[in-house]
Amino acid sequence: MIASAITTTATKYDNYGDLIMAEGSDTSLYNGTHFDFGAGLVNATRAIDPGLVLSSGFDDYINFLWSLPNVDPRTIKAATGEWCNQPLSHLANLNLPSVTISALTGSLTLRRSFTNVVNKSETYLCTVVPPKGTVVGLYPPWFTISPQGTQDLDIQFNVSQALGQFSFGEIVLTGSLNHIVRLPLSVKPVSFDCK
């Protein structure tokens, strides 16, 4: 939850107001991608009051390990002492404060689950800057979440243009109590689904 608070409240601007991440832009002081800068610069003031957090526990990481291709289950059991409860439907479904898809073919729906860590209800508007070569839908497009409540957000990715390289975007949840929650998106759209 701490890593989530730091990641989702990071800023893309330095102390002088200059944009640090602008892929292929001449207006950025530091030209780079999410792989160079992560979610951006830490904003400690905002991280103390993030509004929403995403959490993944021990069982989630065990399920992630069991979902990896070409891994012997006995090795995971020997290393962790645990058997899998439920493998992930897709490796990118681990509830992290970012989304990376290394080979998007056609359509894919992922889920992120948020917890409200504020002592008031808050309404969030969900927007997206889709990575190049993709169309991204968010469901629901807005939601109200009670104190300590949880809310699932389904993220639907569709390839609009096969690029064969990573492109970047972000999901931004804007709260009625002035919280802003950002999730970086890194997607490599490789081909259309031929089904």
UniProtKB/TrEMBL annotation:
One of the protein's GO biological processes: proteolysis
Source organism, top-level taxon: Eukaryota
Subtilisin-like protease fibronectin type-III domain: residues covered: 93-187
Coiled coil spans: none
Keywords: Signal
GO MF term (any one): serine-type endopeptidase activity
Annotated family: Belongs to the peptidase S8 family.
Name of the molecule in the record: Subtilisin-like protease fibronectin type-III domain-containing protein
